[in-house]
Structure prediction request, 619 residues.
Amino acid sequence: MRRAWWLWAGAIAVYAFLYVPLAVVVAFSFNDSRLNAEWVGFTLNWYKTLLADEAMLQAAFNSLLIAVVASAVATVLGTMAGIAMHRWKPKLLPFMVLTPVAMPEILLGVSLLVFFITAFGQESLSLLTVVLAHITFCLGFVAIIVRSRLAGMDESLFEAARDLGATPWQTFRLVTLPLIMPGIIAGALMAFTLSIDDFVITFFTSGVGVKTLPLQIYSMIKVAVTPEVNAVSTLLMLITLAMIAIASRLAPGVLKAH
Amino acid sequence: MALLEIRNVTRRYGDLAAVCDVSLDVEQGEFFTLLGPSGCGKTTLLRMIAGFEAPDAGRILLDGKDLAGTPPEQRPVHTVFQSYALFPHMTVAQNIAFPLRMAGRPTEEISRRVGETLELVHLGDKAHQYPHELSGGQKQRVALARGLVNRPRLLLLDEPLGALDAKLREEMQLELIKLQKEVGVTFVFVTHAQAEALALSHRIAVLRDGRVEQMDEPSRIYGFPKNRFVADFIGSINLLDAEVIEAASGHLRLSVAGLGEVIAPHAAAAGAGLRGAFAIRPEQVRISPHTEAPQLKNHFTGRVSSFLYIGDVTTYIVETAGGARIEALLPNSAPGRAQFFETGDAVAVSWRHDAGAWLGE
Prediction:
């Protein structure tokens, strides 16, 4: 069946709105000009500049470190919370776990800042506080995904495992875990991407010394959007795409809705 | 000593007693069925035997040993779930190997016994397929194989045929009987389908509202239901309000609503003046043209109000002169329709004086 031309036009417009800005950033990262205005010629100079930029490299390292640690911890805790919410249907836990997800980031940022300063003092703000803050808001996302994965599952699967001789731990390891693994991987992926590009909460909890990539990019564009920023954005995009590719390889079906 | 002894078991959910003071014995090698409508407590009872729920009162003994406090994984009891509960991330062979793995059997023994069990359920060629690649009947067989492979003392089956279509269900019934005989494992089967229970079981316990209404062999449950509920639940039956006029030694004289006087077999509980019901199976009722002279004592005239031609039999609903509706079965054994009545035809229904039964309230 031929679809109406305006459906095609609409679809193209939406995709263009989503992807043209990204394409422009990628293209201009290879542009041999200081200005994001016209195409001059191909160059890899901006990537070379980037690799020579100590502050930028340090920020990238911090971002990766924070994202890896925060998403790992959030995945473990979020999985546990998701399972607990599914199994025991507690009243308070979902509220406590999911509030940081729904709360405006600025509010979470300010309250974490106030908490860290009053509890541990001004000097406590560091990589550690950023990691703790990221775990706080990533955990909820993992918990939601894991719980929804469990909710769609036949409860008698877990009873069958016990019935056939598996201890509760064997049931978890051999049945529950493999079955919710796509959800866990999806949650971990989500936590990683949320953490690596977070600005607001990081801004409030990082103190003076610690810079992450989003913070570094922000401080650079205060002056002007340089091609170097384009280059670092392109790299960030690559990392994200790689994460999605890895996840869909590890757990086919993550990208599909169950 | 019976293999499974259930002693005065009660299980409450809030104010509701799902299982109420149930006692029963299941013998070694028996095919025992818990039969009842949904909500009668049969599944709760099964779950208590499996160990997923604990009784509030009473004891469950297996081989004379009290199961209280024994978790499901340590009971030599396996369950075939209504949804089959096959592990979707494991192949058929891995599913069947699961209980053996959990029991810590050596690898070569596992693969040998998985192979044997696959042959037993005719799935030798499906070992490396995943559950989602199987048909309903095949999944059913895998679930059975998984439940039987480690030779449990007891196999619990929770409406395992419920999800199959009628034709396949009949096939699986025959196969279940054969399988149970071959492996000699004791089966406790839960169902709400009375025909299935009659066909499969050595003994049936009919449950209602958490209590055992009657426990006996299928032919006795069908032929001699203890009360109105059992009579009505098992098969189809004519149930008419009746009062005892005279309780003689050999027979009863009843006054049956819509019929008048009926002679029925003696019942121990019957006494003159008692109210209850007269019950008679449709296949025990003879239907004949009204012109035929009465041959039996219980003989009533009426008209055919409707009929259902089912193929092997025709079911007639006859409305008697007194207003009773009597269902009668006529086998279509003769070629053509030698003896056939139309709606509105004047007919007579009759039955032997030793057929039917008086049931107390």
